Amino acid sequence: MPSLTPPDECRSMTELRAQIDRLDRQLISLLVDRAGYIDRAAQLKPEEGLPARIPERVEEVVRNVRATALDAGLDPELAEQLWRVLIDWSIDREARVIGAE
Predict the structure, then answer these.
(1) What pTM does this model have?
(2) Is residue 94 annotated as involved in ligand binding?
(3) Domain 7-100 belongs to what topology?
(4) Is 34 labeled as ligand-binding?
């Protein structure tokens, strides 16, 4: 996939929106990849005697995301809010599989 046009090089809202749409497709693709790892975690956790929710790991992920966001120039509060939703979704996904075993 060709690289995105930088925001300051977009000459119209149509062009800008097209770039946002391309970026959204890339983000969805990355979330699909992440979900694959969550599915694998749901297989591995029972083998290792681990529950779906591990509070220490949740907070570790949030700390990492906040630091990464800050370093990248993104509001860490926004990153935390987004990731907490993603983490809760992931844990629910794992719990459905783990609970079924």
Answers:
(1) 0.87
(2) yes
(3) Chorismate Mutase Domain, subunit A (1.20.59)
(4) yes
